[in-house]
Specification:
mainly alpha, two-stranded antiparallel sheet, 5 helices, about 75% helix, rod-shaped
């Protein structure tokens, strides 16, 4: 079990680094392959932007400026409280064996609260990574549609 926790923690850290250092999708570079004028390219750009936005339902400006998911001590599933209860019950049982269940419950509650806090931080980090991945996926989808439109109008896209 301990080995599984270490492996999954290591995998989560690698995934976090991959997301953090993944190149953010920027607007594709457009080249007028068929001699389109600057005015024509600007018009096509605006029309393809609008078409991609309507087709995908994604506005990259809105996605990029969306606030991050809430975080902090007030957010979460009550991991600290659940940890405190579990720790107090376990501590009381151990303390009863040693002859002082009240002291054991108090010590168990403290340890359980700390473990619950660690779980809460881990859950918040996973939620933030998921939200970032969803944002990036939405922007990628939009730019694929935009690129398809511009290519259809005779532009080279990179």
């Amino acid at each position: 079990m301990r080995m599984l926790i270490k492996v999954s923690a290591r995998a989560a850290a690698i995934a976090a680094l991959a997301i953090a250092f993944a190149p953010a999708q920027a607007k594709p570079i457009v080249y007028p392959a068929k001699g389109q004028s600057a005015q024509q390219q600007q018009r096509d750009d605006g029309e393809c932007y609008g078409w991609a936005k309507n087709t995908t339902g994604i506005d990259p400006a809105a996605v990029a400026s969306a606030p991050p998911p809430p975080s902090g001590a007030a957010v979460g599933g009550g991991e600290r409280a659940q940890g405190a209860v579990r720790g107090a019950v376990g501590g009381a049982a151990i303390g009863a064996i040693a002859g002082d269940s009240g002291h054991g419950a108090a010590a168990g509650a403290v340890i359980g609260t700390m473990a619950g806090g660690a779980r809460a931080r881990k859950n918040q980090q996973a939620q933030q990574q998921s939200a970032q991945a969803q944002k990036q996926g939405a922007i990628d989808t939009f730019y694929r549609a935009y690129s398809a439109c511009m290519e259809g109008r005779g532009y080279t896209i990179k």
